[in-house]
Amino acid sequence: MTSEPTPENLLAGIRETRLVAIVRGTDGGAAAKAALAAMEEGFRYVEIALTTPDALAAIRTVRAAAPAGCFVGAGTVLTAADVEDVAGAGGQFMVTPSLASSIQEAARLRIPVLAGALTPSEAYEAMNRGATAVKLFPASIGGPGYLKALRDPFPGIPFIAVGGVGLDEAAGYWDAGAIAVGLGGPLFGDAGSGGNLAPVRERARAFVDLASGYGRRMAAEPAR
User: Fold this and answer.
1) In the chain, N or C terminus with fewer CB closer than 10 Å?
2) CA separation for the pair 90, 171 (Å, rounded)
3) What pLDDT, in 10s, does the model give residues 108-135?
4) Of 26, 29, 114, 126, nearest to 77 (Cα)?
5) What is the pLDDT of residues 190-214, one digit of tens each?
């Protein structure tokens, strides 16, 4: 079982790994298995969407079985009651799709929260409400170019690009300044609804390898 992350520690870890996994499906048990499969292949941060049936039970399962150094959170956290339910189930971070009241409640409790925003005003407001980082969602609307433009007036906001990000798009968002990308369908496919886990493991390894390689290249750049 992993320890509770602080907002600062979670942010540092996400910056290091550059990856957040997002499980959403029609079967909580399958979602838990998919989350654990991603963790076993190198993902450290996995959220399970509350729209998944029996999501809280899935979070409990993953929290109890997660490899050391891995953390499970909840997505689509909208209300203060959701925050309470997720924390009670062992969820270690919260993710919202919008400027929901859950942001302030999670921040009040010192639980890391990745707050959904799209526009400059929303991103600024999310941080004012206590967000640990801003989940740029859906990122595919504007792509890396939009993220780069958004970061110009807000260089201090940590952005995580989510929505329509696959293996071919991830590096573009990192280049544009995203601290990480959030991966749902391009990683899990239908695994959260009972689909085959073998392709999930293969894709997870590919994303982890991509992020690791990117990190090595960035570390080597100043020496060039």
Assistant:
1) C
2) 32
3) 999 999 999 999 999 999 999 999 999 9
4) 114
5) 999 999 999 999 999 999 999 999 9
Inter-residue contact 12 to 204 (CB < 8 Å): no
Residue type, 105: E
97-106 pLDDT, tens digit per residue, is: 999 999 999 9
33 is catalytic: no
Six-digit token pair at 109? Answer: 């409790």
Q: Which pair of structure tokens corresponds to residue 125?
A: 């407001």
Please confirm, yes or no, whether 135 is among the known catalytic residues. yes
Question: Helices 55-65 and 28-40 meet at what angle, rounded to 10?
Answer: 30
Catalytic residue among 33, 41, 105, 135: 135
Identify the active-site residue in 41, 47, 122, 221. 47
Q: What is the largest distance, in Å, between two alpha-carbon atoms of the chain?
A: 51
Q: Which of 3, 64, 68, 77 is nearest to 32 (CA)?
A: 64
